[in-house]
Design brief:
It is built from 3 helices and 4 strands; from the N terminus they run αββαββα. About 35% of the residues lie in helices and about 20% in strands. It is elongated. A hairpin with a 2-residue loop joins strand 1 (about 50-60) and strand 2 (about 60-65). The mean pLDDT is about 90. The chain has a 4-stranded antiparallel sheet with strand order 2-1-3-4. It has helices spanning about 25-40, 70-75, 100-130, and strands at about 50-60, 60-65, 75-85, 90-95. The chain starts with about 25 loop residues before the first helix and ends in a 12-residue tail after the last helix. By secondary structure, it is α+β, with helices and mostly antiparallel strands. Helix 1 packs parallel to helix 3. It has a single domain (about 5-125), classed as Ribosomal Protein S5, domain 2 (2-Layer Sandwich), CATH 3.30.230.70.
């Protein structure tokens, strides 16, 4: 992952094992999203999270988050992973044929989806580590 501080750790090795129990497409992106959150949750120093989302074209309509039947029956499926702080694409895979203008529209929609996933990832981590103010911190001597 380009967001990890690998230069701080000589010869790092991190094994991530993901088991997807039930899927209806986008397993690679689910794995990328889960891995980013798991690494952050484990305290691995990272510059940012990586967020992934798919978009594509089904029955002539451009759609976000392509699911199984849409993936197999649709005209185009594009998987995208994003390093949000740098707006750097870390994964781009497209199955299908399109023209330049439609490619740009589908990519823009996938990137919008990545930003939405990124917000969800950050909120999940933030909620987990929020400290409630219980009022027990009074300075009574």
């Amino acid at each position: 992952m380009p967001v990890m501080f690998v230069e701080e750790f000589p010869k790092p090795a991190i094994d991530v094992h993901i088991e997807i129990l039930e899927a209806d497409a986008s397993t690679r992106l689910a794995g990328i999203n889960a891995t980013a959150v798991a690494l952050a949750d484990a305290g691995i120093p990272m510059r940012d999270l990586i967020a992934g989302c798919s978009a594509g074209k089904v029955n002539g309509t451009i759609m976000l988050d392509i699911e199984g039947k849409e993936d197999t029956d649709g005209e185009l499926d594009m998987a995208v992973a994003l390093y949000p702080k740098k707006r750097e694409i870390t994964l781009l895979q497209m199955d299908g044929i399109t023209d330049k203008d439609e490619f740009k529209k589908i990519l823009a929609l996938a990137l919008e989806g990545c930003e939405r996933v990124y917000d969800k990832q950050r909120n999940a981590l933030r909620e987990k580590y929020e400290v409630e103010d219980t009022g027990d911190n009074d300075d009574r001597s």
